[in-house]
Amino acid sequence: MPIRNLAGAMVAVCVMGLAVVAPAQAQRADITVGLVLEPPHLDPTAGAAAAIDEVVYANVFEGLTRFAPDGDIISGLADSWEISDDGLTYTFHLHDGVNFHDGTALTAEDVVFSIDRAQAEDSVNAQKALFADIAEVSALDDLTVEMTLSRPNGNLLFNLAWGDAVIVGPESADTNATDPVGTGPFRFVDWVQGDRVILERNDAYWGEPAQLEAATFRFISDPTAAFAAMMAEDVDVFPNFPAPETLSVLDADPRFEAVVGTTEGETILAMNNKRSPLDDVRVREAIAHAIDRQAIIDGAMFGYGTPIGTHFAPHHPAYVDLLDLSQYNPERSRALLAEAGVTGLRLSLALPPPTYARRGGEIVAAQLRAVGIEAEITNMEWAQWLEQVFGAGDFDLTIVSHTEPLDIGIYGREDYYFGYGDPEFQAIMSELDATTAPDARIALLGDAQRKIAEDYVNVYLFQLAQTGIKNAGIEGMWVNAPTQATDLTAVYWAR
Amino acid sequence: MSAVAVESAGLWRAALRSPAVLVGGMLSLAIVVLAAVSLVWTPYPIDGVAIGARFAPPSWTHWLGTDHFGRDLASMIMVGARTSIAVALVAVGVGVVLGVPLGLAAAAVRGSAIDEVIMRGNDLVFAFPALVIAILITAVFGPGAVNAIIAIGIFNIPVFARLARGAALSLWTREFVMAARLAGKGRALISVEHVLPNIANTLIVQATIQFSLGILADAGLAYVGLGAQPPIPSWGRMLAEAQTMIALAPHVAIVPGLAIVLTVLGLNLLGDGLRDLFDPRLRGVRR
Questions:
Q1: B69 neighbourhood in chain A, CB within 8 Å
Q2: CA nearest A360 in B: which residue?
Q3: Cβ separation of A362 and B230 shorter than 8 Å?
Q4: How far apart are CA A66 and CA A72, in angstroms?
Q5: Which CATH number does the domain housing residue A358 bear?
Q6: I need a surface site. Which of A16, A71, A323, B32 has the fewest CB within 10 A?
Q7: Under an 8 A CB cutoff, do B47 and A369 touch?
């Protein structure tokens, strides 16, 4: 295999972080990946930031199960598992001969440690709800783990595939934030804060080894800088390119290829359901009818994105098309406002930094003005948005994309920033949690979607598209993003 | 009788002969007129988002074309001129109103503790990198036109204070000031009645230059997102937003860029021309 020939030299060069153009004919074995946001740290079990998973998921850390590129849940560190008839006991059989990057062997005790740690009272895991139904985890022998649930949970295997549920070793758990030690096909080498994270191939990997020798993640949030880095070939692949308007320009260049797929990002115009007059469903419906989704998709995302009528991914089998409930209809919008007795409405519109929010917000403001609602735009930095809008719920309107897979459950949380938490909806969700039969689950998910669409909790704008750009020679990248990840396991240079 | 009155007689004729003053004056006037007209009329409403009509090239319907939201660029440039001029004008005003009295006071009591305090305070403000502090101010108090004015205005204070002090110092040794002192006038009165009129020309020239710097600073702040907030158009933000669209529709970036260049060029030419006019050594007028 020609990749082998360059191996030694390439590793040395890549570790030093120099971008080297390989001689003609020879394949490169290193890659530089561009990411918009830098992770705050590198421990996926201790933070909600998508950027953490975008670096380490499937590359450095692995869980018992994992997401496949098409969104299916496939086996990870667990080769197989049995589920008891009552759905309360899961027995996982671990792959034999798996070692952490520090050389210690993966045993059933590590799994028990990881799950207990995530569930603990003082756990900083960002998704503790994933583990809520796990009553007890125990090691039957070195390679067998038994999980006992307090009630049946049809989502357990899906939950265990999340980046927040990866298996860590007790020896390295406390230092994973800066020096991540996992079981994955790549090991961590260096993190130059504010600039890049460097990984190299784990030659002792238990599964199919990675084809790349080394990978560098560079953090470039400015659309112009990202475009320049791509054009100069400083970056080989940008899985979520921040300037959708330049995709067609880059795609027309024979050196590059655009990769457009789907994500789990439901982009919504969130409304503060607790604040008057947005606590009136007629006002919320009026706002929904004032919005022309296609204009936002075309204007802000240059056509990349799929309209949604509820908080659910259109490519999911359980998706229900509810766009008819909130078609663009300014007449209806004005009539509803009059019916609710609202005149001269002024609302604040908080916009976080991503392109969809900043550009989409200006279009939303113009559309609202057309029906007599004055939206005052405030552009916010990410940290300020997280604190003021997401944390304290101090806002009227905001635009954001919820990128976690299957996250309709957030509507059941009364303390969530848009403040819905309707008891009827909560009842649907708890019934869903206790249901394992696929058909019944799909029906319940449909009920949940209809409920939030009929209550006009938020304006559901569009499903965020994965607008990636890559060097034409690279193969094996995920096209869609069923979870937040940049899985490099199968990536290689074809030419 | 002050020197200004003596010199002003031939000033208009000289101005008409100076190409810098003519061209600079006309460019500056054009921008001011555009901004003034935008108060009552623009070709299109500036918040008219029409995605279907975006990236239209300049034509008879849209004189300067449309941007990425289909808004009319000519209208946005006109209203943007208003924003820029307002920010720069008030910022220069802050500098003149606060800086000049400080400089005159320092000159009137030169060598005293008050002079030292005023001038070292100015040095302190001068020592900070202006744009970085402007960014700091807007980052702390939130982005917006008012904070941009304050940020730019603060850095105009030492400029005018130093200039006023320096120019005033040379006047305090002149005969007509001596005469005023002998007549029993107080230092404050002399500063206002005799010193200020004689340094006015210098201050006007500096104000013109600071005005163009103010327009640039406003564009710079808006470019990094700290100036006037959307939907109020501002040249700097128009430029920033157009950056990645240069390949798709170059005019979206060229139009606001050209507006900034022409305005700053006009003001600088005007400032330079006025300095030449006012400077007696360059005009050969005997004092």
A1: 299, 359, 362-363, 366
A2: B69
A3: yes
A4: 8
A5: 3.10.105.10
A6: A16
A7: yes
Report the first-to-last Cα separation within chain B, whole angstroms.
13
Residues A163, A230 within the same domain: no
A80 lies in the same domain as A55? yes
Query: Bridge-partner residues for A269, per DSSP?
Result: A399, A459
Its domain, for residue A221, covers 180-261+468-493
Contacts of B229 in chain A (CB under 8 A): 377-379
Q: Is A116 among the domain residues?
A: yes
Rounded Cα distance between B215 and B263, Å, is: 8
- Which pair of tokens denotes residue A235? 């970056």
Q: Which CATH number fits domain B3-278: 3.30.420.40, 1.10.10.10, 1.10.3720.10, 3.40.50.720?
A: 1.10.3720.10
Give the sign of the dihedral formed by CA A94, CA A98, CA A100, CA A101.
Answer: negative
Count CB neighbours of B76 within 10 A: 28
Q: Find the chain A residues whose C-beta atoms sit closer than 8 A to any C-beta of B.
A: 223-224, 227, 243, 245-246, 248-249, 295, 298-299, 359, 361-363, 365-367, 369, 377-379
Number of domains within chain A: 3
In a domain, A440, yes or no: yes
Mind listing the pLDDT tens digit for each residue in A206-251?
A: 999 999 999 999 998 878 888 889 999 999 999 988 888 888 888 8
Domain boundary among A151, A174, A197: A174
- Which residues on chain B are in Cβ contact (under 8 Å) with A298? 51
The pair of structure tokens assigned to A153 is 């949970």
State how far the alpha carbon of A416 is from the alpha carbons of A272, A301, A389, A394, A413, in Å.
10, 27, 10, 12, 5
Residue type, A454: E
Question: Can you tell me the distance from the alpha carbon of A185 to that of A476, in angstroms, rounded to the nearest whole number?
Answer: 15
Cβ-in-10-Å burial (0-12, 13-18, 19+) of B52 comes to: exposed
| Per-residue pLDDT tens over the stretch A131-183 | 988 999 999 999 999 999 998 888 899 999 999 999 999 999 999 999 999 99
Place of tokens 């598992």: A81
Bin B225: left if φ > 0, else alpha if -120 < ψ < 50, else beta: left
pTM of the entire predicted model? 0.77
Token pair in block for residue B246: 């240069």
Angstrom distance (rounded) from CA B34 to CA B28: 10
DSSP state letters, A106-117 = P-HHHHHHHHHH
Give B-chain residues touching A349 at CB under 8 angstroms. Answer: none
Where do the domains of chain B lie?
Answer: 3-278
Q: Tokens for A183?
A: 């079981």
Q: Are A308 and A455 part of one and the same domain?
A: yes
Tokens of B90: 């008030």
- Is A1 part of a structural domain of the chain? no
ipTM above 0.85, yes or no: no
